[in-house]
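Listing S7. Sequence submitted for prediction.
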Amino acid sequence: MRLHDQLVTRALDEVNRHAGLFFKDVRLTGAVETINEWIVEHGIVNPVDIGPGVALDALLEDLVVHESYFDRDIEQLRLVDELVLARLARTTDPIKVWSAGCASGEEPYTLAFMLAARGLLQRATITATDLSRPALVRARAGRYRAWAVRTGANSPAMRFLVPCATEWCVPESIKEAVDFELLNLVEDPFPAAQDLITCRNVLIYLDQAAVAVVAQKFANALAPHGWLFVAPSDPRLDPYAPLAATVTDRGVYYRRADQLEPVPARRPRASVPPPIFMPPLRVARAPSVTIPPAPKQDTRAARDHARMLADRGDYEGARAVLVSAIAATPLDGELYFLEAVLLAADDLAAALACLDRAIYLSPDAPVSYLFAGRLRHSSGDRIGARRSYARALVLLEASPPDERVLWSDEPAWIMADACRRALAAL
């Protein structure tokens, strides 16, 4: 092996060993490019010189995307508000909240805004952690450009942020309520007895061994009746720890398996202070589904029946069949994919939510990524479309060209060609 290849391999190994970060497919290509630049910048010529220290911290900073903004994934935040904060508002106990992988601070500050709106901030302890020291410095400053408030003038965060020159600033009372700390999810101890933990779009960077470690640590960090919220694209945690997953059209969350409670059927009582969110957009919602530890059932008949009804133009009947099948078999990713196809023409947000669940349950099915790419492209989300097409292409190129793609009637080479043409057009 050439020396340069040894340096790259050693860097990837150290990054994985100390932070659990793992890169494959298109992310591996980008990671290798970043490592090449890092090797040149730091003048590294010997693999044994690559290890814990300032240089490795700088590499980790470059490898991890610190992309965040206020009110990100607002539908999931509404769920947090209605399901978690409304319930905590009915108690007088101290509240512990942890934002894991907080990047430059938009998420923990958003959580602080939500707590303040319900009159809970005074009894809340908010911990925000990240692997990146520079990101934490930016977070503590609490100053953001307009791009961090990209959801617009009706963003709930705009009720709290104050203008300062050409930027937006977090009020001092909110800044003082959030404690930013350096924390490595793989190596460091976690805060204990947390009522609410958010860790969204972080676990996608970890390999399976690191996910298993972090899942068990999260389970131990939750208070008996605590909630853990992750992103739909994050890997499953319940195979590795005593956690019960609930997949909803507004996001994924976990409870301790020994403390699982049913999802409340009603909104908070009127006596509870109103949330800060605007009324949600019209979304055709399926019921929240708590995933049981039962084997997956055969739902082929339901899928075939739904397709037959859709072919006849009976879309409502087809969706009714799928909703019933999903309630009976919530682990079948194809059912969510088919529901997304039915919803796409009338409700883009609901269709994308169904695709998120399909991808969460069946991450190796390329048609979900391909369809998500088409929907995002049609809505003007070119960055999101590019990511979806790229992921689909990686999966399709790994399949035999003439093999029929899962959940479709097309061979892999035709769909791969469609992805390439779509990417070229973006």
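Caption to Listing S7: primary sequence and predicted structure tokens for the chain studied. The longest helix spans residues 25-42. The CA atoms of residues 198 and 229 lie 5 Å apart.
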